[in-house]
Structures are given as structure tokens and as C-alpha cells.
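pinned: reference chain
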Amino acid sequence: MRKIINAINSVYDKLISLGVRIIVERRSLAKIIAHSGKNKKCNGIDKWENKWKVLGHVNKDYYRIFSQYIGEDVNIVPDDICHNVIEPILNPKRYISAYEDKCLFDKMLWSSFNKNVTPTTYIRNIGGAYFDNNYHLITQVDSCINTIPVSVNRLIIKKSIDSSSGRGIIFCNRDKDGIFRDSSNNTELSEQYLTQIFIKDFVVQELMSQSSFMSQFCKTSVNTIRIAVYRSVKTNRPTVINAIMRIGKDGSLVDNAHAGGMFVSISNDGVLGKYCCTQYGVKETTFNGINYSKKSFAIPNYNEIKKFAEQVANAIPHHRLLALDIALDNNNKPVLLEYNIRGYGVWAFQFTSGSGFGEYTDEIIEYCTQHRKEATRVSVLF
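pinned: its C-alpha cells
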């Protein structure tokens, strides 16, 4: 029976991987090429292909595209191989769901920090049941909403699982009568409304006030630092390997590139790059009235931010490749908004910062080659 299930698992996984690859190549790559073109004269493309083909089919367009931005680097990561092979091996699927539940972030991170490092949460809905910030059961949700401190004027409500790219988020503002209302339709916030919109599995948090440094890039959105952390398969030590800053479009409430935002590289010492990029690789030196090519910006407390990111990664022992979204509060201290275990998004770094895994590329390829059979999307327990 085990052999039969493993065989089904393998065939299913190959079909899913092929389907994902075809979709990515036909849609995402086509859009990027349409907007940004591709490098047709790549001297090192054969060497690059030989390096990566041990992990499966290699689409040369990835090298042709990203080499325009970060140079002809043999470590450029093919996006489909990252998604279909590397991520499932470094981040085993069977553990992902619990770790990614935003309702559980504070519980998982408490032992590492001895304090909450996420925005203040007032209500958590876990599987349909309501809990407060300390995970105590809530029986009167409307009463809980009414007891949110009067100093809090803005809330953000989002799905705690299966959410991405800022989709499905609700923002609430407190009106002159002290009632929280959905900013998009003026509906009063209540248990009935929450259940109607989200059904279950969501969080109600204070919309944090970001630092003046981060606010200067876009005042309407909370702009975030996307930090990639890799925990080495050789040393088990987490290291920041890439970083970008995500900037919302003026007037937008979110900073996601899919919502019209842009992103800019962050060097290892916290200095911003000289151009911003769209999700399709369109480069702009000026965004929201700021000319990045003529100004120099350095993120405050950047070494502290990197240590914070690595400490978060240490609290998630089953997964080796994380993308953290970190905001800065009024004192330029890091606040974790979320971490991403699925959808690492290597493309954003390779448009701006450098190859996806940098100096760790070879050890990742070697490890994934040895554990190729673990690259599955189907988890079967015996």
C-alpha cells in the first residue's frame, strides 16, 4: 500500500509541477518579457543551464530576463525550479499550515522573544471560535470590539490562512461616535459582519503607525521590508540572504506590487538601491515623487532588523527558506507583520538585489539534488 500511494503521489506531483511550469511560462514570463524584454546575447547561459538541470527542466528565459538586472550570474535561480523543487524540499508541506496561521504567530514566537512582536491583536478567529490577544475564549465579540482602547482609531482585518498579496484585507476607521466602520462601505464592525465577510480564520489587529522614515516613501500604506532568511542545511544557522523594501502607490492602503506598488533593493548594510521595480520588471528611478537615482537612503537600525529576522527564523525550525514582511514602528523598531513559507518570490530579489540564494546556491542545489524525492506537494502520513 505504501508503494502504491507513493507512486500515485509521485505521478500527481509531476503533473502538478508540469502544470505550474506551463502556466508560469505562458503567463508570468510572457508578461515580463512583454514589459521588459530579455537578454538575447547571454554568454554564460550554457554554464547556467548545466548547473541547474540537475533539478529538472530549465527554461533559459529566466536567465535571459534576470541577467538584464543583476548581470550574467550563474546563480540566477529559475523561478519554476524554486517553486516546484526547492521550496517543497526546504519547506516540507506537511508542516506549513500551522506555521503560516497568522493567529498562531504570537504563540510560536513568544518563547523566542518573551513579548509580542506583531501588531496588537484584539480578536483572533481560529476555526470559527473567537479568542483575544492572550488566546482566551471570547463569548461576546461585539462587547470585545467595544472595549478596544479609545486611543486606537484604525484596525486591519485579514485572513489568517491562505492569504497573499494583500487580497481580502479590510481596513476600519473609528467614526466620531467611537464606532469602527469598514472604510470601503461604512458598515459597522460587528461579529455578524466579520462572519459574513471572512466566515472563520482571521485576525483583527491595530493598524500600526509606521516610522517617519518609512512613511516618507508612501504615507497611505504601511511600507514593509521583505527580508529573505535561509537556515543552512550544513550549519542550521539562519542568515539574511536578500532584502527589498516594498512601497505602496500614493493613495493605496497596501504596499504590494500586485496592487500597483513598487520595490527597491536593500544592500547588506541597509542602503536602498537607485531604482524601483514593478512586478513585471519595469524599472523606474522616480516613484511617488522621489527620485531614487539622485538620493541616498539608509534604513535605520538595519543590523537590528536583520538580527530580528534571524531570530524569527529560529522559531520556525521545520522550514529553511522564509520571506518576512517587517514594518518599522515610530521608534524604528522592527514589527513582524507576517512571514511567508510558500511563494518565496525569488523574482523580486532578482529584479533588484541579486541572485536568489547568493553564496548558498551550491549547497542548496547539492542538498535538493540528494533529496529530490521530497519535492512533493502531497503529504501522506503512515
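why pinned: DSSP finds twelve helices and 15 strands in the chain. The first strand starts at residue 121 and ends at 126.
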